[in-house]
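Notes on consecutive records. When two proteins share a document, each keeps its own sequence and its own token line. Never mix them. Below: protein one.
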Amino acid sequence: MNMRETRRIIGNNLKARRKDLGVTMRQVAQAGGIGRTTLWKIECGRSSLPLESTPAVLKFLDLGEDPLVLLTPSRRKWGKGMIDQD
């Protein structure tokens, strides 16, 4: 998996989780200490999630502490408070 594909997967998963929870880009961006435009670029796969912002974003989106959760290519709807659904 190359960097472009990695950014796309992370962005898609962040966007899907944000929408599942019904929170705005502004809320996630504020929680992570980044700008809304930066988050938009991340969700589009054009930019990477800053390392220093990752723990706060994961916590806000209730995804635990392991950033690898964002690399699952085909993530189904998580649902509120759910990380994995098998």
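Protein two starts on the next line and is unrelated to protein one.
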Amino acid sequence: MARIIDGSKMNMIGKNIKKYRKLKGLKQQELSNQLELMGVYVCRGSISRIEDCQRTVTDIELYAFAKVLNVSIDDLIDPNFFE
């Protein structure tokens, strides 16, 4: 069986990161800046790749995204990822 990162999607949260970022009225660079204030360094280009599901996300990054976007980790995870 192939590992999940061998597929076309490398994370389960990209669509929802983009959704909640836009709902908060944040640009990708602004989200990057807020993550940096937490000590989590994700550049604007990496946020773009995360939103396009072309980059994996660490647990620390997942936690920081949830805090900055003021949502739960469960809100970020796409429940239909495996369908």
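For the record: The radius of gyration is 12 Å.
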